[in-house]
Specification:
By secondary structure, the protein is mainly α. Helices cover 43% and strands 0% of the residues. It has four helices and no strands. The radius of gyration is 22 Å and the shape is elongated. The N and C termini lie far apart (52 Å).
Length: 94
């Protein structure tokens, strides 16, 4: 499937899910402006920096739709920390 066919297929899938022509036009414009349509004919992108994430440093945090930017610690994480279960389950290397 060539690039043009892929884009048409993506647009058609929006039509088949009942989106209005106006909505599809907005989505397509946004995706094109932000270069979010994958162009398989382009050379592979080269990134100048990488992000490294150590999963052992990730802490439990729950937020919902009413406070999506809140950084409230979950009750579970708080409980585990208080009872030092986290260290028992996954001790950090010295």
């Amino acid at each position: 499937m060539d690039q043009k066919s892929r884009v048409k297929f993506k647009i058609m899938s929006l039509q088949l899910t009942g989106r209005s022509d106006e909505t599809i036009a907005v989505i397509e414009s946004y995706l094109r402006t932000n270069k979010m349509f994958v162009n398989y004919n382009e050379i592979e992108k080269v990134y100048s920096s990488y992000l490294e994430l150590k999963l052992e440093d990730v802490e439990l945090c729950i937020s919902g739709p009413k406070s999506s930017f809140a950084r409230n610690e979950s009750r579970l994480a708080c409980l585990l920390r208080q009872q030092s279960w986290i260290q028992e389950i996954h001790p950090k290397s010295p």
